[in-house]
Amino acid sequence: MDFGNNNNSKNRLPVLIIGGGISGLVLANVLQAQGVPYKVFERDLSPTSRSQGWAIGLDFGLAILKATIGPEKYDTLGKQTAVDSDHPERGAMTMVDGNANKRILMLSPPPNTDMFRINRTRLRAWLLKDIMEADCIVWNKIFESYTIIMTDKEKEDGSGKDHVIVEVTFTDGTTERGSILVGADGTNSHVCRQLIGSNLFEQTTLTSDVKNLASSYWIDQKFRDEIVESYGPAHVVAPGSGTEDEASTCMFFSLVDVNFSRKEAPYHMMWSMSYLDDDDDADDDDNNEKDNNKKNNNVYSLTTSTQQQSSQEKKNRQQQQQHDSEKLLKIAKARITRCGFSGPLLQLVMETPQNSNVGSLLFKERSPCSSLQEMASNTNNRIVLIGDSSHSMIQLCGSGGNHAIADACFLGSALASAYKKDEEKALEEAVYMFYKETIPRGQEAVVAAHKTADAFHGTRETVREYMNSILQQASSLATIDNTETHCWKKKMDPELLARYNNNNPKL
Ligand SMILES: Cc1cc2nc3c(=O)[nH]c(=O)nc-3n(C[C@H](O)[C@H](O)[C@H](O)COP(=O)(O)OP(=O)(O)OC[C@H]3O[C@@H](n4cnc5c(N)ncnc54)[C@H](O)[C@@H]3O)c2cc1C
Fold first, then answer.
1. Ligand 1 centre from 24 Cα, in Å?
2. What CA–CA distance (Å, rounded) separates 93 from 84?
3. How many domains does the chain have?
4. Bias category Low complexity: which stretches (predicted)?
């Protein structure tokens, strides 16, 4: 299907996408593949002006991406973006009992289905390739507000021009007009804020009690082999606690990159530890840190843009940057020792070089409110939210990015069909149908992620129950005593995929 040859679609104003993160860039790729005019506006100064963070685990989103953008482009994804580009298929996640240092289960995909651990910098480059070649992304553009403009339909010449127009104003005072505005601007979405109003935005955007410390460094072959032997190749989740009754600390670590030109230490590994933000680490300095974190509105403290931020975000970021890495590393080391971790898990944290950057992040949660659909209809369905701007969740399920991809693919396909019909009504219906699907899916995902976080930070008993429930889902015969069980994550919802495949226009 090539809308590039469709005169009607050429007459239509472009889809305006705010944000060049995963959701915005996937949407741009889908629209590009289908010849729908679009423009992405990203606040970063350039593609490389900001670190993208370490790695991301993608699974059910990949199946949807493949079905939407087609195999030709998709087939390059693993090789070009996986943390271990020679072995993209090694993306399985391992769950480990942190106290017993024992592998409980490995979540791996069913045959012919991908589950990749992906390097975020390479993912962005992969997503940007076609968009930059088409010159359809504008950097250093910060969304400020939108206005819905109703033109006089009678005066239109019937050539497919839009009657309802969205005008976006950027912080530099410039404006752009489009047929529809897509907020893909992440957790702190200003598009969402305007759509649902500041009060509701504040009320529904909650800072999680889960706190996270993280760092990364390059390790040698010997240590890498020990890790693979003990746990698995890609990434590991391991809850553990000091006593039976204590809330667990959840250790997480992942391969980020492989570079054999670094002969001594060719494997880049990151670790993170999440725990309930109790007063365990309290000393004066740490209390300052907590205060700063609580004020911080930025869930991506390690990955967010540094230069083009609102003054409030900038201030928050500066406060965040005051964290003393050495102090955080000390806290991390004390915690992992106290919680009884052992083996390579313990070693990875304890051997963190003293000069490493240790960051601290807080997570934000926002479930899409049920009235979102009604609010969007007040804009003639010209404002759409995708990814974290719509549903922000704690990242322990590894779902936010997958849902961001699902959103972008579903919306992109729906908009492509609507552009082809060249009726404004079709656009409205496409957005209506999109919200109908994405709101309950987003709500469910936010709750599921929250429950996972609760379970992983509960007592040993809670953690055991949770792991058992996952094992039960994986196999009715499996028990927590199994050393390893291969299963597919429940979130690969067959119904959702079937619904999607039925509606998806064939490429
Ligand atoms: C530590 C961590 C680990 C994670 N691990 C996983 C995982 O393993 N699996 C998984 O599926 N998900 C994971 N996630 C979640 C995943 O990263 C997010 O859900 C995903 O990045 C959301 O994509 P997005 O495009 O909606 O938002 P973002 O990636 O936040 O992108 C938003 C973009 O909008 C831009 N922007 C913001 N405001 C403006 C503005 N006013 N004007 C213009 N541009 C603007 C930003 O610069 C940014 O580029 C993790 C998240 C974290 C923090």
1. 10
2. 14
3. 1
4. 295-311
